Amino acid sequence: MEENENVVGLLSDIKGLLGHQKKVMNVDDLAAYTGLSKSKIYKLTHLKLIPMGNNPHIRQKFFDKDTIDAWLLGEPDLSDETLEHRFNEQQLVKNRR
User: Fold this and answer.
1) What gap in Å lies between CA 94 and CA 76, rounded to an integer?
2) pLDDT in the model for residue 22
3) CA separation for the pair 10, 64 (Å, rounded)
4) In the structure, what pLDDT confidence band is assigned to residue 97 with cuts at 50, 70 and 90?
5) C-alpha distances in angstroms, 69 versus 1, 75, 90?
6) Hey, which of 13, 27, 34, 41 has its CA 20 to 30 A from 71?
7) Are 70 and 57 spatial neighbours (Cβ–Cβ below 8 Å)?
8) Is the pTM above the cut of 0.85?
9) pLDDT digits (tens, 9 = 90+) for 36-57
10) What's the Cα-to-Cα distance from 64 to each of 25, 29, 40, 50, 94, rounded to whole Å?
11) Which ranges of 1-97 would DSSP assign to H, the alpha helix?
12) How distant is the alpha carbon of residue 37 from its chain centre?
């Protein structure tokens, strides 16, 4: 019985590792990959502060792994205060146009 649990645990770990090999990720995949909560990811997408696909025919959000990697390495501060400040700056620029 314990041996079966170990095998199931190993298979679950392998499944998780293989999930990180995807080129295109959905919100669930991105949350598992980055460790960000799904609510944080949705907030980032709403504020347009995270790179994502923009296919108007698909309602679901998709993210390119390579682009996300570059974004994560270039934007280390993902605190709510920083994100809101950046969003407000974007809104000021839009309003000036």
Assistant:
1) 25
2) 79
3) 27
4) low
5) 40, 10, 23
6) 13
7) no
8) no
9) 999 999 989 988 889 998 888 8
10) 6, 11, 17, 11, 26
11) 2-19, 27-34, 38-46, 65-74, 80-96
12) 9
